[in-house]
Amino acid sequence: MGKNDLGDFLRARRAGLKPEEIGLPVEFGGGRRVAGLRRGEVAQLAGVSTEYYTRLEQGRARQPSEQVLHALGDALGFDDIERRHLFALAGATAGHEDRAGHSSRLRPALRQVLESMELASAFVSDRNLTVVGGNTLWALLFPDVAGLPRRERSMARWTLLDPRARLVWCDWERVARDYVHGLRLAAAAQPRNQRIAGLIGELMMRSPEFPAWWSEHRVQERSTGLKRLHHPVAGDLELQYEIFTAVADPGQSLVVYSAPSGSPSQERLRLLASWGSEPATATARDTAAGS
Questions:
Q1: pLDDT score of 34
Q2: Is 235 helix (H, G, I), strand (E, B) or coil?
Q3: 229-246: pLDDT as tens digits
Q4: CB-based contact 93:190 (threshold 8 Å)
């Protein structure tokens, strides 16, 4: 996390808005020399002084009240995810321990659930965004991730740093950007999590695209969607993903990739599931379990 992430976030969102997008008359913004809203316009919409808003962007103001944060969210047209991110950056999570070392092992019962999904690729990630366990089909679908050391086994890290990920994800840039947006949320919610901070630092140094995407300050939290992959054995796959929160294991999320019954993608998953030999499959299972 940077020294003035709150100000950077406000400035980035302000620069990305046009007056008409938030209800200001077009003529109100005539003669602009730069894109986006002016500081005074945001301040006016939020009901605060331009001086105070300027100090807020520059990181010189005291922690804003919840009322001011809500007003800024309204002024900038934030959705629920962006508003939650705004509160986190303003210190809404201050005083809460970032339990980075907790919930980092896969419970046997949850592992049993993973392995019961024979035609779905499923894995569990922890609050550090590392994969703590996956089923056999996940290890066969993403062998490059399953074979990584435990601390490096991150879907975000692999997607952004491994050149082979660009061959797997048919829409690599969209997927990579989604991971950057999710990482923004995780970093704001856990400002003292050194594992996440370390991942951000590594991506800053090693990913050509990451610094520019990170500086956009976009946040997004997807819990469902469609991803298109290419697998060297199974071929092209269109998989629906769903993300579930593990209530019994705070900080852990279950991610499931599946295909509609009878679809070509499901038949290709079936082929992939039966493709590996027993010894290879057992090795993949042990690698994915990671515990």
A1: 64
A2: strand
A3: 999 999 999 999 999 987
A4: yes
